[in-house]
Amino acid sequence: MNLRNIVALLMLAAGAASAQTALQGCLGITPGQTTARKFAPTSANPACRQIPAFDLYEEAGQRYQACDHTGAARLAAQAAKAGNPLAALRLAMMYEAGEGVPRDTRQAFSLYRQAAEAGEPAAQNELGGYYERGVGVSDDWVEAAKWYQKSAEQGWVQGEFSLARAISMESVCR
């Protein structure tokens, strides 16, 4: 079975749009519509306040912008541990870059997976990239495409681009 067939099966398996989750509402995602993220997460959005430890996530962002990356990482870690996928995504990026924490791609991968499994589209795209490049895992275009597809289904433009590239590369490399 080639990658195009797998993507088609994934799309069929996705089925009808489900009810909007708090995370989707916070990010401005409407199930069944392909639209890019419309706004950044903020406590002014009632859906964002439903995400676990959102106050810690916001405080981490304030610390980060004030150049206290270590303090930001500590707060983001607390929020991620409480189940906040946005915090897990941001902390993964910090581990990837070595900002406020030691550079650690294994920890970044783990946090991207946590956020991706919770439905965060940017994390789904990043996780796909780890599989595509074989960073800390065996390179696996099918697994990469699965995560790119999940991201693209939510209208995440980078996920759409990554999925198209994966399909294109699969047909070129046959």
Question: Can you put this structure into words, describing what you see?
Answer:
This protein is mainly α. It has 10 helices and no strands. It has helices at residues 3-14, 22-27, 46-49, 54-65, 69-81, 85-97, 105-117, 121-133, 141-153, 157-172. The radius of gyration is 16 Å and the shape is globular.
Q: Write the CATH homologous superfamily of the largest domain.
A: Tetratricopeptide repeat domain
CATH fold field value of the largest domain: Serine Threonine Protein Phosphatase 5, Tetratricopeptide repeat
Biggest beta sheet attributes: none
SSE class: mainly alpha
User: How large is the share of residues in beta strands?
Assistant: under 5%
Please provide the count of β strands.
0
Please tell me the total number of domains: 2
The averaged pLDDT comes out at 86
Computed CA radius of gyration, to the nearest angstrom:
16 Å
- Indicate the CATH architecture of the largest domain: Alpha Horseshoe
Percent in helix: 55-70%
Distance between the termini: 12 Å
Based on CA inertia axes, which overall geometry fits? globular
Keywords:
Serine Threonine Protein Phosphatase 5, Tetratricopeptide repeat, 0% strand, 174 residues
Please specify the SSE layout and strand pairing.
Elements: H1 3-14, H2 22-27, H3 46-49, H4 54-65, H5 69-81, H6 85-97, H7 105-117, H8 121-133, H9 141-153, H10 157-172
Helix pairs in contact: 1-9, 4-5, 5-6, 6-7, 7-8, 8-9, 8-10, 9-10
